[in-house]
Amino acid sequence: MLKGFKIVLVLTMVMALAGCNTMLSEQDIPRGEDEASDPAEFADMISNEHLYDEADQGSILVKSDDLSGLEPLLEELDSEVLNEYPQIDWAQIAVPTGQEMPEFLQEARKLEQIVLAQPNLPQKLPEYQERTDQEVLEYTEQDLDVLNIGADDYDKYLWGMESINAPGAWEITTGSDEVVVAIIDTGVQMDHPEFAENEFVAPFNATDDGWPEGDVTDLSGHGTHVAGTAVADGRTGNIAGVSWDNPIMPIRVMNYVDGVILSTYTIEGILHIVDYMQEHDVRVVANYSIGGRGYDPAMKDALDYALDEGLIWVTSAGNDGKRVPNLPATYNGLISVAASTPWDDKADFSTTGSWNSVAAPGVNIWSTVPGEDYAHMQGTSMSSPHVTGAVALLLSENPDLTAVEVLNQVEQTARGEGFTEELGHGILDVEALLGDIHPVNYGGVDVQTNLPGAQITVFDDNGNMVGFAAVGPDLIRRIHALEAGDYTVNLTFIDPETWETETLQEDITIVPEDVLEIEMEF
């Protein structure tokens, strides 16, 4: 159990719990029965002050139920609105010239018109490995026999496609132009020969680097590699992605001028996708092989909005090799993907955790990189697009499935012996995924309060934390995808009269395919 909680919470919870990427050592992470049972203690895990130096120093994000009233208010503070996101009631506002970002953040949190405030936080690409031409895969002759490949072919072998039973799935479907695959990443080289037969739609530069809106140039290679695994047309070229006929929407969130990925870039990307979905009446599955160590209320609001609109979000679990909560992988309702080996083991680098949905191939994955080239990379970044492509096939056959129904189907059809924190519900099985649709065992809860700067934590009947969110007055926070069963909802806040930490509790029962509504007031 986490120890040493103090009233340092006052700084992080008054008016808002800002987003964070808390760096946690292994011993800090709650495990199994040792999961933090005191909801106040969890606030230490999502404090983000240490990230102030990495956050954007020129802007912050604020939530207000009256965005139109922000402009005159900010003029008095020598600030201005840089971007508005009315779909989620958030805005990006400028830090006044000559003022430090943390100081201005605290000023903003004191304004009655602002419900939540947070830094414009950084996200990072998980560390991944690229093999050089001199390296070889460490397969023994016995391994080659098991994998049914010859010694001359193993270097470029797409073992992952066989591992997830993709060939069987391709007998059923190779995709549909009514389901788009969004690659939210470092960009995609759209003119790579491997994508010659693929359709690209609505490419979008979500950054503020001054490059054209449709410029998704990939100077990293990460996004192009991810795209190849998810959607390269298997009828032509040298490789096959999991889905072949689904259009690709590349969204670049890497700012190559400053070398950063910020909250606002991801939010812009999410809203771009939802706008496209609404305008063209299509489904979209998004791959996000990016993450961090913290809670980002603005990004979570954008994700919740997108989930409600039907977007499916697939994300990498992380490459920490131990039980570390990477975000957004730990958010409820998303599909978090761990990495597996050709022998259905957990890859040694793959992050474990109760939030993992499934595992997919992540070791020595051969795919596209810029320059009309190919390379082996490994990491959960490579695992996630296997699931993204599989979901595209599923939606191509079943376009009316909700986000929770897709999550449930991916988990219930995985190949394994039951849930483990290492592999989630098992190894992705695309052929089984396209079979009979399984009944949903998930529900959810909407929590509303009159309290400012409050924090929701949800615990199952074994004391394991299974959901969390920041909330403010008159805001409704949904905790998605809770398995049917009994839970305790905790609302932790600072008493404005005593300045002491208080907690309200309510016991609830979740039933499948239902969203419970509760109000917690002090």
Task: Offer a quick outline of the entry.
With 522 residues, the protein is an alpha/beta fold.
Key terms for this structure?
2 domains; 23 strands; 522 residues; globular; Rossmann fold; alpha/beta
List the helices and strands and how they pair.
Elements: H1 9-13, H2 39-45, E1 59-63, H3 70-75, E2 81-85, E3 90-94, H4 101-109, E4 116-119, E5 122-123, E6 129-130, H5 141-147, H6 159-163, H7 166-170, E7 179-185, E8 204-205, H8 222-231, E9 248-252, E10 261-262, H9 263-280, E11 283-288, H10 297-308, E12 312-316, E13 335-340, E14 358-361, E15 365-369, E16 373-378, H11 380-397, H12 403-412, H13 430-433, E17 442-449, E18 454-460, E19 465-471, E20 476-483, E21 485-494, E22 501-510, E23 515-520
Parallel strand pairs: 7-9, 7-11, 8-9, 11-12, 12-13, 13-14, 17-23
Antiparallel strand pairs: 1-3, 1-4, 2-3, 5-10, 6-16, 15-16, 17-20, 18-19, 18-21, 21-22
Helix pairs in contact: 8-11, 9-10
Walk me through the structure:
22% of the residues lie in helices and 24% in strands. By secondary structure, it is an alpha/beta fold. The protein has two domains: 9-84 and 91-119, no CATH class; 129-433, Peptidase S8/S53 domain (Rossmann fold, 3-Layer(aba) Sandwich). Strands 8-9-7-11-12-13-14 form a seven-stranded parallel beta sheet, sandwiched between helices. Helix 8 (222-231) runs parallel beside helix 11 (380-397) and helix 9 packs parallel to helix 10.
